[in-house]
Amino acid sequence: MTDSAKFLEWFTTNGGEFSKDIVAIGENVDGMGRGLVAVADIKAQTSLFTIPRDIVLSTRTSSFKEKVGQDVYKQLENDNIGSWTPLIMAMCWEYNQGGSSKWDAYFKILPKQFTSLMFWSKEELSLLKGTTVVDKIGLEDIENEFERVRDIVKQNENVFGDIANYTLDLFKRMGSLILSRSFTVEEWKTEEEREKEEEEEEDEDEEIDLRTSVDDVAMVPMADILNSRTDSVNAHTEYEENCLRMISLQDIKAGDQIFNTYNDPPNADLIRRYGHVDYSPLSQDPDFMGNKNDVVELPADILLELALPDAKESHKERRVEFLLDECGEDSFELTHDDLVPELLKICVLLFTESEAEFETREKSRKLPKASGFTKEKAEFLIKAIKQRMEQYGSTLEDDISKLDNKDSLPENNFKALVVTVGERRILNKAIEELQTTDYAQKKQRTK
Asked: Are 37 and 43 in contact (CB under 8 A)?
């Protein structure tokens, strides 16, 4: 019996419902690994499978919290409601139980190797030069957290078991599984309970913590088998009192893969979380391949240094503080659908005005109006964007040529190029828009 067959048997034995007459688990579907496939035509709004809440793997359903005790669990939490550490350690503990764990059959079908950025070499990560995604991996933070947790395990081997079973590799694997496959599964509340909770929150003076509690982060067997692809979602999860239910959103033909959604993130997020990229014709530019949801960040400090190269640091800091106070942003996202955001224009106007003009603005606490963005300011922004493009360390033309011969590239080289080329195409299109848009000339003062 295959691991998938054993998993399906475990799933149904534990109360899961699986419509095997219309869906099946495929081992390598469309080159995307394990996935769910329609074996018969499926009508919209059809239930594909249901997952009992008690086989969802979370800090609520695992006996880990009870096993280690409240004091040790609080040490793992480390006063951080949003930290995944308690769930990572619950999963490590369950995994180390082997056949004694309720989720043993589930662990056996989960990936043991990953292609996400956490597992890339330093040389491979250097291929992403110019992007901001490498800074978001947090590998050093993960290693530091593991060392902190390992000390807790060492002091409590009587409940954790052999410390040798708690390795950095296992810690990273479980963290990667949560990053790439987890769902938010809140504790079920009736409408009356929700209304009462909202009323209590409104009455509280303290600021509400909007971070997702680790108790609401869960691994959801069967639901996480579904793959995702941009603009391909044809099923979604509905949350009920006693179960989670996967429902078809549209008619699905026999043989088609069933896709859930990752909310269509840009390639930089796809490669960081899941280890793959979307490389398909762009709806905004059909002559090119990539991800229509790509985003590139333009940090405000590039604009600031270009606008005020000789200004005192204190003067620069005042402008950034004003920007943050009034806009809440010090970096701007450019997308295929919004190449020159209004806030970016406002930032350019703010950073390029004279010190006297800025002092007046500090008193009024009013931002410049984007309508004042002129051809002169557009030329300034073009210079800033060109500086941003230089951070990638190679030319867009050369890298597009490499992508044209993608079959000769190592897999991670190809993925890195898809990310960096996608971001620079947006920057290039932003320059074209700035060059071709008829912005008003700066009005000359009359005597």
From this structure: no
